[in-house]
Each structure stands twice: as C-alpha cells, then as structure tokens.
Amino acid sequence: MSTAAPTRTRDPQLLLNALAHRVPSLITDTEPTLWARETALLLRDNAVMTRDTAERLLGQAIAYTITAMECQGVDMGVGYTVDVAVHALILDTPVYFALCDEYHGGQYKHHAPLIRRRCDGTVTRTADILRGNGFAVDDELWAMDAAECSPCDDKVPDSH
C-alpha cells in the first residue's frame, strides 16, 4: 500500500476540484473548475460523446487514478472505454502532476501500457478494487470492456 494519505472523500468531482489551488492558471471563466475543464477536453476530443458520458468517464478515471496511486503493487487496469478518460487526464499534465502531488506523495505515477491487451479479468477485478477503496463504480462502463481487458502494465516501477 501507498504511504500517501488516503483521500478524505470519494467524490471524484470534489477530489479533482480540490486541486485548483495547485493549477490556478487553468481556471477560467469558461471552465471555472477543473471538473469543467477535463469534461470540456473530453468533449473536444470525442465529438460524439455526450456531456453525461464524459462526466461518467471522468469520474471513473479519477477513481482509477487515485486508487492506483493509493494501492501500489496491486495489479489494476482499465478497459478501452474508461481508458479514454484516463489518457485525457494524463495528457493534461499540469492536472496529472497535481494529482500525483496530492494523492501520491509528490511522486510521479507512470503510465506504461502494454502493446497487447490482457484478457485475464483485470478490468472486472479493478472495478472491485475501486469499490473496495471507497469509490462508486459505474458498472455499465466497466462491463463494456470486461472481455477485452486492459493494456496496463504493473511491471514498470510505480506504473499503472
């Protein structure tokens, strides 16, 4: 397990918005919260996605990312559907670095995907791990990829 202090709340929107003081330059009139910013980025890059879907995916991506940081050494991974939001979060590097600072003791959490997806039940187990870590799990989103599973690799030191 991680030495980072566990989060006090398990609401992904509150957890993300609590990082605003770390990245104040990203808060704007059009995106007044980090939640609004990340949702807007998902919508920008996925034109057929609805706001509801973007917010559901973002919530699961935050739950996954924080759980991966808090549960070091636990084999976890997401399927393609949730991974879309995980990648969007990681690509917004100021926000991702703020997540690492806040929820991973200031240490960078690597993302080192495998080339081929693992078809070993990782996605279903990961949803259960998130649930056990106090997060609400959107079972519909996790079930979409339960058969194809995850490309995440836990063999690179401190990666997910």
Helix and strand topology:
Layout: H1 12-17, H2 34-45, H3 51-70, H4 80-91, H5 93-103, H6 122-132, H7 139-143
Helix pairs in contact: 2-3, 3-4
List keywords for this structure.
160 residues; globular; 0% strand; mainly alpha
How would you describe this protein?
By secondary structure, the protein is mainly α. Helix content is 48%, strand content 0%. The protein has 7 helices and no strands. It has helices at 12-17, 34-45, 51-70, 80-91, 93-103, 122-132, 139-143. Helix 2 (34-45) crosses helix 3 (51-70) and helix 3 (51-70) packs across helix 4. The longest helix has 20 residues, at 51-70. The chain is globular. 36% of the residues are buried.
Short structural summary:
It is built from 7 helices and no strands. The chain is mainly α.
Task: Tell me roughly what share of residues is in helical segments.
Answer: 40-55%
> What percentage of amino acids are in beta strands?
under 5%
Compute the number of helices: 7
Mean pLDDT: 87
The H/E string reads HHHHHHH
Sketch the major β-sheet.
Answer: none
Low-confidence stretches: none
User: What is the CA-CA span between the terminal residues?
Assistant: 14 Å
Morphology call? globular
* Helix-and-strand structural type: mainly alpha
Number of strands: 0
**Mind telling me the C-alpha Rg?**
15 Å
